[in-house]
Write a structure and sequence with these properties.
- This protein has twelve helices and twelve strands.
- The protein is of the alpha/beta class and 359 residues long.
- The strands form two sheets. Strands 1, 2, 3, 4, 5, 6, 7, 10, 11 and 12 form a ten-stranded mixed beta sheet that branches. A two-stranded antiparallel sheet has the order 8-9.
- β1, α1 and β2 form a beta-alpha-beta unit.
- The protein is globular and about 50 Å long.
Length: 359
């Protein structure tokens, strides 16, 4: 149920729709993150850009998050869900009510540099009309010389990972450039793109939902740009945990659904080969404690990981009929060819080694 108290700008209670500058809606999804909200919401209050419509979507929290926001940030609009709808469902609640020409997606475990939104809007206003999203340079909150993510790179079985993760922030990714898609840890969408392709797939719940959105955007002819001067600081996986059984399950299930929905038939069949190749590298990683599999098996056993992957694959198969129906809609409205789609992997793809063995 939505809290009907309506305000639009952190700097004042005035309605920004009559102002000359472009309204930006900022959606902050929260689930039991009261201890995180001060950082993200305070940094939004200190932005050099206005007008902002700041929306906190509370995903059924039980930690008094809503009361905290109402008390400490009274100009923030609160959308309440009675239950946890996941990343996809929760953010869709925000997307449905956002009024801005641009919509910024922001994790609750972040701090936004003061000029971040101003840099994003300047880039957006100067971009061609086929650019639908703009990625920030996301830096580790605790080690501010280390990159967290600068957009997304993709793998041929439906997985993706953060571009530039754990590289030195000063040494790379300092120029604007086209990327596959943004990370929703902190990035800007053109509202007309979301209106065209739809929001997040709520069947995904968490994990890979932004990757699926990125593929749908590519099929519809939308491009994405990386803006290095727009900085967000991120406490990596502060809400869900960096390596957890639930996250491993959702990632594996959802990457299959991503491929089923978005890959041309030949590429979908070929994705089985790339998955098998990835499993071999991940087995090596589990054995020698490298990559995500190695990190997972530091806390849980290799047999647990195998069991989770099998369970995820079974769940994915059960969901294929529904995903195939969604696929038909995507393919019926596509604006690029299969050949152009394959070039996306050539331009924005990563190797099996990078995916499986890089932390």
């Amino acid at each position: 149920m939505e809290n009907q108290t309506r305000t639009s700008c952190l700097e004042s209670g005035e309605n920004p729709l009559g102002t000359e500058k472009t309204l930006v809606s900022v959606i902050v999804l929260n689930w039991n993150g009261k201890h995180l909200l001060e950082s993200s919401l305070s940094s939004l209050k200190n932005q050099t850009y206005s007008p902002l419509e700041v929306i906190v979507v509370d995903n059924g929290s039980t930690d008094d998050s809503v009361s905290y926001v109402e008390r400490e940030f009274p100009t923030v609009r609160i959308i309440r869900s009675e239950k946890n709808l996941g990343f996809a469902g929760g953010n869709n609640l925000g997307l449905r009510v956002a009024q801005g020409k641009y919509i910024m997606m922001l994790n609750n475990d972040t701090e936004v540099a003061p000029n971040c939104i101003e840099e994003l809007v300047e880039a957006a206003e100067a971009s061609p009309s086929d650019v639908g999203s703009w990625a920030t340079k996301v830096i580790n909150y605790y080690s501010r010389d280390v990159i967290d993510v600068c957009g997304i790179v993709i793998y041929r079985d439906g997985l993706g990972r953060g571009r530039g993760r754990l590289e030195k922030a000063k040494d790379c990714f300092n120029d604007p450039e086209e990327i596959f898609f943004i990370s929703d840890c902190g990035g800007l969408y053109r509202k007309t793109m979301i209106d065209e392709i739809g929001g997040y797939d709520e069947d995904f719940f968490n994990c890979n939902e932004e990757l699926d959105l990125g593929f749908r955007a590519q099929w519809a002819g939308w491009k994405s740009l990386f803006i290095p001067t727009a900085i967000v600081y991120h406490m990596y996986s502060a809400t869900m945990g960096e390596y957890s059984p639930k996250k491993a399950f959702l990632t594996e299930r959802n990457r299959i659904w991503t491929a089923v929905k978005n890959f041309p038939l030949a590429d979908l069949i070929l994705s089985v080969y790339y998955s098998f190749k990835r499993y071999i590298f991940q087995a090596y990683g589990a054995l020698f404690k490298r990559g995500s599999a190695g990190k997972f098996t530091e806390k849980f056993s290799t047999w647990q990981l195998i069991g989770i992957l099998l369970k995820a694959q079974f769940a994915a198969v059960l969901g294929i009929p529904g995903m195939w129906t969604k696929r038909q809609v995507i393919m019926a409205n596509r604006k690029i060819s299969n050949r152009q789609f394959r070039r996306i992997f050539e331009q924005f793809g990563m190797t099996t080694r990078e995916l499986a063995l890089k932390d």
